[in-house]
Amino acid sequence: MNEALYTGAARYYAAGRLPYPAELPEVLRAGLGLDGRGRLLDVGCGPGTLTRELAPLFAGAVGVDADPDMIAEARRSPVDGLEWRHLRAEELPAGLGTFRVATFAQSFHWMDRPLVARRVRGMLEPGGAWVHVDGITHRGDDGTDPLPHPEPPHEAIDALVRRYLGPVRRAGTALLPQGTPAGEAEIMRAAGYTGPERLPAGGGTVYERSADQVVAQAFSLSWSAPHLFGARVGEFERDLRDLLRDASPSGRFAQRSRETVLLVWRPSEGPL
């Protein structure tokens, strides 16, 4: 995982991203029969938003991320039984021990997926599970149901980013002309997992958003993280705020969260 993916984005993440569905922890608890025992490993945890929400379901939790600023943000609010580690997913198991559940939320596609899948499989205790949180928090649902305020003008924001950074999507120090990779199911099965079991985990909540939050949303993304703009970051933000002012003179926006599904993978029996 490229440590430069989100350089400068950590302080914008919590304000910029939409919340995970409130019912997600209960869906995970009921779906996996969690009873407060065992530990959670949250891989690519960012500033620890989801880690904190799920930690009460376990006896302990560890959040790991390749970005030192994300881990620094996570450590600003200490929680008993919750540990933060600055390391790349490819460095696992890193002496962390075994876990009942490993979660990946908006992170696995950035990693050496076959390697990480194999290494995490060896870290799961008997009966343990890998959970991919399939849902995005950086963009609302594209439905046509009415909202109380205008939706952020995503297409115009994307066009502004391209005007500054060029037509090919950026990601850390690399370019992604084809976007992020697919084929997760094949990788998981090749690494010795069965599944996935699908657990619908909510969504569809409408959130009111300020212009500041929409700006933070843009800066929380890998393809428009602050470092990519270099000395022009202030100029970009001014143009972005002008765009938002035109889209909603009141400075208020609204977004409906997308549906989230938990994809549960379990290690198959026996060695690979």
TrEMBL record:
Residues 41-128 form the Methyltransferase domain. Keywords: Methyltransferase, Transferase. One of its GO terms (molecular function) is methyltransferase activity. InterPro entries: Diverse_substrate_MTase (IPR051052), Methyltransf_25 (IPR041698), SAM-dependent_MTases_sf (IPR029063). GO terms for biological process: methylation. CDD domains: AdoMet_MTases. SUPFAM superfamilies: S-adenosyl-L-methionine-dependent methyltransferases. Coiled coil: none annotated. It holds the Pfam family Methyltransf_25. It comes from the Bacteria. This is Methyltransferase. It comes from Phytohabitans houttuyneae. The lineage of its organism: Bacteria, Bacillati, Actinomycetota, Actinomycetes, Micromonosporales.
